[in-house]
From TrEMBL:
It catalyses: 1'-[1,2-diacyl-sn-glycero-3-phospho],3'-[1-acyl-sn-glycero-3-phospho]-glycerol + a 1,2-diacyl-sn-glycero-3-phosphocholine = a cardiolipin + a 1-acyl-sn-glycero-3-phosphocholine; 1,2-di-(9Z-octadecenoyl)-sn-glycero-3-phosphocholine + 1-hexadecanoyl-sn-glycero-3-phosphocholine = 1-hexadecanoyl-2-(9Z-octadecenoyl)-sn-glycero-3-phosphocholine + 1-(9Z-octadecenoyl)-sn-glycero-3-phosphocholine. Belongs to the taffazin family. It is a peripheral membrane protein. Keywords: Acyltransferase, Lipid metabolism, Membrane, Mitochondrion, Mitochondrion inner membrane, Mitochondrion outer membrane, Transferase. This is Tafazzin family protein. The keyword Lipid metabolism applies. GO terms for molecular function: 1-acylglycerophosphocholine O-acyltransferase activity. Pfam families: Acyltransferase. The keyword S-adenosyl-L-methionine does not apply. One of its GO terms (cellular component) is mitochondrial outer membrane. Residues 265-303 are annotated as: Disordered. It comes from Danaus chrysippus. Residues 288-303 have a biased composition (Basic and acidic residues).
């Protein structure tokens, strides 16, 4: 029987003094631990670090939505280990992060830890209008920072997969409330060597990580165009999501070019997708040279 997560979001909405104290400590400890892992026990190269610093220090009434690829279970909190200590230990500046309920919230202890760490349990397959998404829209409308992995899962094979439309809903609804978020793309390579996706699942050291921060995406013209065209909510979510995916893929190509140009030849091994696992599965059929999405992916049922 699955663990009941029904208490978590109500608690996050009305935390209380003791919860806030415990959460502040958890966020700071996890942030500092991540910094030790990525900055001291591994080597990290950050491209355009200033864009991330500017984003986290934005004016209080400006919401921030960061989006990134998902290669390892350590991506969050590992990514944020590149931030300065002052940010990592400041509860109000740190992100809220959507996390899979069936991985991070499987029992009382894990649920308490991740919830105290500002993680929000999302039920994959429950659609874009579930409670976790409502909560994140509210956080954005309050000028806070939300991080999402639009791929919706750890992309072990590092293949291009369609982004879930939940990211489009976050932008659409926060903009409709008058607070269009600052959308910042982040691409990283090497995190799956720090915490591999195969057993034994333990942190490893002396690896080289690469993190590239893009510039904020100019989505206001796109939102205005969709409003003037009276686009439906479904169409709006789809178009916004596709635009974000397009920009993140551009950042991916730019990151790979930077790694090849500025780093040792051995670093190129990070850019090669792992060999496919043996099994009966077959690749998706091609249509005009492009991968055709399975029929169920065209429906707005998943995040």
């Amino acid at each position: 029987m699955a663990y009941d997560i029904g208490w978590i979001i109500p608690r996050l909405r009305s935390p209380g003094v003791l919860w806030n104290c415990a959460s502040s400590i958890t966020v700071a400890v996890v942030g500092l631990f991540s910094k030790i892992i990525v900055d001291f026990l591994n080597k990290t190269t950050v491209y355009n670090r200033e864009a991330l610093q500017r984003a986290v220090r934005r004016p209080r009434d400006v919401p921030l939505l960061t989006v990134s690829n998902h290669h390892s279970c350590f991506d969050d909190p590992g990514l944020w280990g590149v931030l300065d200590v002052g940010t990592l230990t400041r509860y109000s500046r740190m992100r809220w992060s959507l996390a899979a309920h069936d991985i991070c919230f499987t029992n009382a202890l894990h649920s308490a830890f991740f919830a105290l760490g500002k993680c929000v349990p999302v039920v994959r397959g429950a659609g874009v209008y579930q409670t976790a998404m409502d909560f994140c829209v509210d956080r954005l409308c309050g000028g806070e920072w939300v991080h999402i992995f639009p791929e919706g899962r750890v992309n072990v094979d590092k293949q291009r997969i369609r982004f879930k439309w939940g990211v489009g809903r976050l932008v659409m609804d926060s903009a409709a409330a008058g607070r269009a978020p600052l959308v910042l793309p982040v691409w990283h390579e090497g995190m799956d060597r720090v915490l591999p996706n195969v057993e034994p699942y333990r942190l490893r050291f002396r690896n080289h990580l690469y993190l590239a921060v893009g510039e904020p995406l100019p989505l206001s013209p796109l939102l205005d165009k969709l409003r003037s065209a009276n686009a439906s909510e479904e169409e709006t979510r789809r178009v916004i999501t596709e635009r974000i995916q397009e920009e993140l893929m551009k950042l991916r190509d730019h990151t790979h070019a930077l790694i090849r140009r500025t780093c040792p030849p051995a670093a190129e091994r990070l850019l090669d997708p792992p060999a496919p696992a043996a099994g009966p599965s077959t690749p998706a059929p091609l249509h005009n040279g492009k991968e055709r999405a399975p029929p169920d992916l065209t429906k707005d049922k998943e995040l």
